[in-house]
Amino acid sequence: MEIVINIDDPTPVFTQLMEQIKTAVANNHLPEGTPLPSIRQLANDLEVNSKTVAKAYKLLERDNIIQSRGYRGSFVHPDAKSHCHIDLSQWTTEMLTDCIATLRAKGVTDSEIRVAFGSLMNSKF
Amino acid sequence: MIASIIFYVVVAVQLWLISHFYANRVTKNMQHVSDNYSEQEYPKLYPKSKSHYLRIQKLFKVANRTVLSLGILALSVLIYGDITEGYKPPNVAAAIIFMLQLAPFGLLELTEYNYFNEMRKQLHKPTRTSSLSRRSLTNYLTPIQLWLGVILMVVAITSDLLVHQAEEPFLLGMNESALYRSITLVVCNLLMLGIALKNIFGKKPDPFQHDDDRQYQTQQTVVTLFYLCLCISFFFLLKSVLIGTGAEGFEAVATAIYSIVIAYVSVGHRVRCINLTKIDFNAYKA
């Protein structure tokens, strides 16, 4: 299974990596439990910063597509296939759209929404 | 006398093998590439002008012929000194000639390093590919081979320390020079391991190389490094056995044979494993 990234593509490299790994899992190219290349190996092969690959791996781990087993490295999650179609970014966009629509219906202005959102994001939860 | 004769024969073979046979094979491979892959059709193969690489090829050829001539001269002087004055060949003679013989190959490696750097400057490829399969040292060497390397190293160190135990104890009853030799052997093995790991996990030196070619090249490099580790450990073991059995007279012969074996498994293996017809040269097209 080969991965191809395009550094001129407006889509961030870590997103390209995540999408392709997810597609590989969904298409059974990467069965559950398959060991994945180390961050260093993938970063060197693709000639990208290792932090970019680490970020992609971290987000894939959050989405339960891969699991880290300490020094043994990263493996495809046992339930990865069922988690492949969950898109947290899309879900976040949908939730925020609903929330903004509700606030607008109540008469809250866009600038008030922005200020409230900004201060909430800047405050420590 | 027998040891001296064997020594001269082995050094002569060493001179022929490295500076003539392998040097010619390497030159022929370089010639094959420059003759069959033109600068116009395969511009990525020549980051500098083709004439620059032809000059390097010529220099390599001249350097090997010079080393061969110097080697023959040194061997003649040693034989003459032995026949007329009865001088015995020094133990390090074969090693010095060997180092001299390896110099053109070492310089060629350095040129190759520059060559790949020049290639990398030409790299303006927006798409990059990688395999999603994990590589590890055990993809290239079996666990048995790895353990064999470690065991042979431990046996060589133990044997050397035991043979020299009685001579001037330095630290915990160990002889000073034997201790330094042991440290050198461990450092050598770790260096080989480091180079192997860099080949497996590091950036590919040739940015245009096809992934299958890279895989094959890494395999050959790791195997070569493994054999080198075995040879170095075995040489240490052999030397301690020769000293332990009172056969120091054969030390010079052992060094000369060791040089040949090292050349056979390093330069020789590299020359043998290169099959130019199997390399995907399309990767270097415009």
UniProtKB/TrEMBL annotation, chain A:
<feature type="domain" description="HTH gntR-type">
    <location>
        <begin position="11"/>
        <end position="79"/>
    </location>
</feature>
<dbReference type="InterPro" id="IPR036390">
    <property type="entry name" value="WH_DNA-bd_sf"/>
</dbReference>
<dbReference type="GO" id="GO:0003700">
    <property type="term" value="F:DNA-binding transcription factor activity"/>
</dbReference>
<dbReference type="InterPro" id="IPR036388">
    <property type="entry name" value="WH-like_DNA-bd_sf"/>
</dbReference>
<dbReference type="InterPro" id="IPR000524">
    <property type="entry name" value="Tscrpt_reg_HTH_GntR"/>
</dbReference>
<keyword id="KW-0804">Transcription</keyword>
<keyword id="KW-0805">Transcription regulation</keyword>
<dbReference type="GO" id="GO:0003677">
    <property type="term" value="F:DNA binding"/>
</dbReference>
<dbReference type="Pfam" id="PF00392">
    <property type="entry name" value="GntR"/>
</dbReference>
<keyword id="KW-0238">DNA-binding</keyword>
<protein>
    <submittedName>
        <fullName>GntR family transcriptional regulator</fullName>
    </submittedName>
</protein>
TrEMBL record, chain B:
<feature type="transmembrane region" description="Helical">
    <location>
        <begin position="6"/>
        <end position="23"/>
    </location>
</feature>
<feature type="transmembrane region" description="Helical">
    <location>
        <begin position="249"/>
        <end position="267"/>
    </location>
</feature>
<feature type="transmembrane region" description="Helical">
    <location>
        <begin position="62"/>
        <end position="80"/>
    </location>
</feature>
<keyword id="KW-1133">Transmembrane helix</keyword>
<keyword id="KW-0472">Membrane</keyword>
<feature type="transmembrane region" description="Helical">
    <location>
        <begin position="222"/>
        <end position="243"/>
    </location>
</feature>
<keyword id="KW-0812">Transmembrane</keyword>
<feature type="transmembrane region" description="Helical">
    <location>
        <begin position="137"/>
        <end position="158"/>
    </location>
</feature>
<feature type="transmembrane region" description="Helical">
    <location>
        <begin position="92"/>
        <end position="116"/>
    </location>
</feature>
<protein>
    <submittedName>
        <fullName>Uncharacterized protein</fullName>
    </submittedName>
</protein>
<feature type="transmembrane region" description="Helical">
    <location>
        <begin position="178"/>
        <end position="201"/>
    </location>
</feature>
